[in-house]
């Protein structure tokens, strides 16, 4: 469970970094920046959906105040 979340977060960060790299190095109108953004949005949506499914399936519980 935690491993899946960590992997998705690392993939999101890598996509963000690659988008920044392409933005700085490529010519204007390069499709690679848009592709990196699409991948980041898709990974973020996947992470949110996974967390919602895990919560409603009872795999994770909300944190309670001490």
Q: What key attributes describe this structure?
A:
mainly alpha; 66 residues; 76% helix
Can you give a write-up of this model?
The structure is a single chain. The protein has 66 residues and is mostly helical. The protein has one domain. Helix content is 76%, strand content 0%. It has helices at residues 2-25, 31-56. The mean pLDDT is 92.
Structure described in brief:
The protein has about 70 residues and is mainly alpha-helical.
Kindly name the structural category: mainly alpha
Largest sheet: none
Radius of gyration: 16 Å
Mean pLDDT: 92
Instruction: Report the span from N to C terminus.
Output: 24 Å
Q: How much beta, percentage-wise? A: under 5%
Question: Helix count?
Answer: 2
Integer tally of domains: 1
List the helices and strands in order: HH
Please give the share of residues in helix: over 70%
How would you sum up the global shape? Answer: elongated
Weakly predicted, low-confidence segments = none
Instruction: Give the strand tally.
Output: 0
Secondary structure blueprint with pairings:
Blueprint: H1 2-25, H2 31-56
Helix pairs in contact: 1-2
